Structure formats: C-alpha cells, structure tokens
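pasting Intraflagellar transport protein 57 homolog for the record, 113 residues
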Amino acid sequence: EEVGVGRRGERVVDEGPVERGPGAAFHMFVLMEDLLDKLKLLSYEEEVLRRHNMRPLSRHYFALPTNPGEQFFMFCTLAAWLITKAGRRFEQPQECDDPNAVISNVLSELRSF
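structre below
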C-alpha cells in the first residue's frame, strides 16, 4: 500500500509500526560523529570557529540537548557558512536575530538549491 512520495522522490510504503533495534538509541551519536568528520574535511575549524571565536564541537554536540540557545546559534552559523561555501551569498545570523526568521531564511535558501 503506497502512502506517498519521500524526500528524494522515492515511493513510501506504510508497513505499520517500525521495530527499533537495541542500537537505535545510539544512532544520533553516530550521525553526529559523521557530521563532525565532514565538517572537519571542509575545514570548519579554520573557517568558522576561528572567525567567530567559537569552541570546537564535541562528538555529541547536537546529539544531546545541553544548551538549546547556544546549539541553535551554532547550527545557524554552520548553515550560513555551508550555504556560502556552496557559492551563495548568505548573511551570517546574529544571536539577537529572531529564530523563526533565521530558520525561514535558511530553509528558503536551501529550497532554492
């Protein structure tokens, strides 16, 4: 029974409740480590951290909700940097900016890709 179309255009089928294995609780930590490896390959330490005088991300920075305001600002800073790195002009968000406006701008820019 087809339910709809997924993010990448593939068909999505509803197979009922999903069984989660014992490793599912650690999946977010694995994703965060992969993200950090990719950011390091793009030289985020030199291009983002030094420029904004920020501390390096831990292996579990976005996997654990520790300081939502700081994590949100780091996410927005990284998103702006990645959009700029992809060849688009994107203004670096400030901590005092409206979070809804910042996310709206990021999403709008990503949709235009």
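Residues 68-85 form the longest helix (18 residues).
The CA atoms of residues 12 and 72 lie 31 Å apart.
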